[in-house]
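Usage

Read records sequentially. Each one opens with the input sequence:
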Amino acid sequence: MTKALACFLLAGALAWTQDISVGKILVASRKSHDADFAATVILLVRHDRQASIGLFVNRPLSIPLSEVYPELKGAQLKLYAGGPVTVGIRALYRSRAQPAGTTSVLQNVSMISTKTLLAKMAAAETSSNVFRVYAGYTGWSPGQLQDEVARGLWHVFAGDAGVVFDPHPETVWSRLIGRLPHGQ
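and closes with the structure output:
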């Protein structure tokens, strides 16, 4: 099956691309046998000469946000695993306007990496359909992600805020992988 046909089959979901850049979505292929990355969907939030960094968008956790961010006692937000590197806390915010102090990741989605802004959004009890908090991240050294894509470990798609803020994140991978030719 040609790549053009595969792209056509994904119409209405995500567009296939080979371009690895900020805002792209990585879908783990069935070839991935690393337990940390099996069945993951990742939003790339940084990609440059030094590193590539992403956040799992399909791994909700059952621990409260206050456990990793004690200053937010009582915050009723669901926490997501950002990746196997358990350093730091970040958030993604979906809005047409990019708030000051955030980094644009894709159209209408910004990343918050300052505790002050994150605390402000959490205190306002911003809805999970526009605001998600991630503990940790996933990262690759220079050239590592490109190598993994070339080996078929990742499918790279255009960014899509609907995937990032899907109301059923735990099923995103199976739905996306099922749309690929032969469930790659």
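Summary fields computed downstream for this record:
- The domain at 3-183 is CATH 3.40.1740.10 (VC0467-like).
- The longest strand covers residues 85-94.
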